[in-house]
């Protein structure tokens, strides 16, 4: 349970402590940081041009976070 919770909260940390850090920490870190920036930007009311509104940007960023979490367990 602790390993799964850590993967959900901070995927790069979970990889560094429980997985192959040299293999996957960088891509997972990029996905996770991109999701944090996207969620913050969406909550601040930013939009991504006409492509995504604020709510869609938050949803897409949450999807990136879930991808990083699933990638860590893969």
SSE series = HHHH
Q: How many domain units?
A: 1
Global mean pLDDT: 77
Count all strands and give the number.
0
Q: What is the percentage of strand-forming residues?
A: under 5%
Weakly predicted, low-confidence segments: none
Rg of Cα set = 13 Å
The profile of the biggest β sheet is:
none
Describe this structure in words.
This protein is an all-alpha fold. The chain has one domain (1-71). Helices cover 80% and strands 0% of the residues. It contains four helices and no strands. The chain has helices spanning 2-9, 11-18, 21-43, 54-73. α1 packs antiparallel against α4 (54-73) and α3 (21-43) runs antiparallel to α4.
């Amino acid at each position: 349970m602790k390993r799964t919770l850590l993967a959900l909260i901070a995927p790069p940390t979970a990889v560094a402590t429980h997985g192959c850090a040299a293999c996957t920490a960088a891509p997972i870190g990029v996905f996770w940081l991109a999701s944090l920036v996207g969620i913050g930007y969406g909550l601040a009311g930013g939009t991504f041009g006409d492509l995504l509104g604020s709510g869609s940007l938050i949803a897409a960023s949450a999807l990136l976070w879930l991808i990083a979490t699933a990638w860590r367990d893969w």
